[in-house]
Amino acid sequence: MGDYLFAGLALLLLLALFFLFPMKFSKTGKWVIPTIAFVVSTLGIYIFELLTLWHSILLMILLLLLTAILLQRLPLFISSTEKQHKMEQKNSITNGSSKGI
């Protein structure tokens, strides 16, 4: 029970750090990263209590790899400045091609 309480306190600490210090994440990214860290740590605690050590190590590696793959494919971590820069590039490309016609 103490492990789960510690994981909850770590979630609150991570949320505070992500919102107090300036980081180049979107608002959604600032919520998603600590939440996924909490879910992975809670599942790791549960897996460690349920299975043997080598099973739990293998399952945690698999879980972390799957989480990394899913986070890489989700467009949650584009900051607003990068989004504006991409929109400006797109607009300049479309405006430049219409002038040549």
From TrEMBL:
Transmembrane feature ranges: 6-24, 31-48, 54-78
Record keywords, A-Z: Membrane, Transmembrane, Transmembrane helix
Protein name: Uncharacterized protein
Organism: Sutcliffiella horikoshii
Lineage per the UniProt record: Bacteria, Bacillati, Bacillota, Bacilli, Bacillales
